[in-house]
Write a structure and sequence with these properties.
By secondary structure, the chain is α/β, with parallel strands linked by helices. The protein has a single domain (about 5-260), classed as Vaccinia Virus protein VP39 (Rossmann fold). It contains 10 helices and 8 strands. It is globular, with a radius of gyration of 19 Å.
């Protein structure tokens, strides 16, 4: 994946990633999959290192964390944010061509990355190679991202279908349900799957969540305008979508599917 293929690319993407990362929720997930002191851990697709900084605290001074990302800009921002954190290093590369040593990590973590890749199965296969024999690989992504609302206006549903069709190959809102299959095909053993509520808006979303969605709609606007045929139609869609998220009578949800498995000995 090159920088131009990441549909969420924008000057504000690093800040958006930082704002949307809930440290306590992340800490619980990492602890649940066995992240502990002394581990050598990889955060694949780390962005600015918001998750990697939580990892660095969990593995302690006897462990180490590598934050891998394709964006030199976000890596530089991550280094600034992690100044003084001695067990965290930042590495430039993508999840398929990482340039990292194979078999080097006790835990390979990849969250909110596979949804944006044209060939997620290849990415998982390559990530498995980076884990030590007997090491753990964790894949986590959303299922139903942006899609599961009730009620949804017919025009919003129609435009959303058109937009999602146009984004095929650069965004997959259903990738969560595919993670087990990817893990199985990549040869992982003792695979376990977890389904966790993620977006959950019974009524209006919070102001922070609304701002995140507003930023996402702004970032994908060029693709949306091309798909829907005009600036006016995309802006109308975006406004209606935001109105739906802010409505007191609307229910919206997506789920985080987390799959963990071991690289064979």
């Amino acid at each position: 994946m090159t920088m131009t293929e990441y549909i969420m690319e924008s000057p504000d993407e690093g800040l958006r990633l930082e704002k949307k990362t809930d440290d306590e929720f992340t800490r619980r997930l990492l602890a649940a999959v066995g992240t502990r002191a002394g581990m050598c851990v990889l955060d694949a697709g780390a962005g600015t290192g918001a998750v990697a900084r939580v990892m660095s605290d969990l593995v302690g001074v006897s462990g180490s964390v590598t934050a891998l990302d394709i964006s030199k800009t976000r890596l530089a921002e991550g280094k600034r944010r992690a100044e003084g954190v001695r067990n965290l290093v930042f590495h430039h590369g993508d999840v398929i061509h990482s340039g990292l040593e194979q078999g080097a990590f006790d835990l390979v973590w990849c969250r909110f990355v596979l949804e944006y890749l044209p060939n997620p199965q290849l990415a998982v296969t390559e990530l498995v190679k980076l884990a030590k024999p007997g090491g753990k690989v964790v894949l986590a992504d959303l299922d139903g991202n942006a899609l599961f609302h009730y009620p949804m206006r017919s025009r919003v549903a129609q435009d959303l279908d058109v937009l999602m069709s146009a984004l095929q190959g650069s965004f997959d809102p259903y990738v969560g349900r595919k993670l087990y299959h990817f893990a199985h095909n990549a040869g992982l053993k003792e695979i376990r799957a977890h389904v966790i509520p993620y977006h959950l808006y019974p009524g209006a979303a919070s102001s922070d969540h609304l701002e995140n969605w507003r930023q996402k709609l702004k970032t994908v606007a060029p693709k949306g305008i091309e798909a829907l045929g005009s600036v006016e139609r995309y802006e109308s869609f975006a406004e209606s979508f935001m109105d739906m998220l802010a409505a007191s009578d609307t229910f919206y949800y997506s789920v985080l599917i987390l799959v963990e498995g071991l690289r064979p000995l």
